[in-house]
Amino acid sequence: MKTRNLQKWEKFESDICKFLDMDHIGGSGKPDCKNPNDPTEIAEAKSYSRDFNAYDLKRELKNAKKHGGKKIQIMVKHECTENAKKLAEQLPEVVLRCNCSDLFKNKKTNTS
Asked: What is the side-by-side order of every strand in the sheet holding 23-24?
C-alpha cells in the first residue's frame, strides 16, 4: 500500500483506472491506464483547470497511437468544449467522457 500522499491529479488518474477495470500504468510517455485483457485499449485521465478542447483530443489520439493504443477512452475531470465532443463523435476509436469528477462524489462521503 502506498504511504505517500497522492496529488489530486494522481488520485483522479488512479480512480479512473479502477473505475474502468484497467491497470494503472501512468508515467511520462506511457498511457494512464491499460486494459489487461486488450493491450490495444488504453485510457487517459485529464484533470485540466480549463475545458478539454479539440486540440487536446487530437494530441491525446496521436500519443495513444505511440503507446500502441487503437482504442482510447479519455476521461475528463471537468467540461469539454463542443468542438471536442463533435470531433470525438466522428472518431470510432475514441470514447470521450466529460465531467468525470461526478463519478467519485459519493465516494468521499463514505470514508471513516
From this structure: 23-24, 33-35, 38-46, 71-76, 94-97
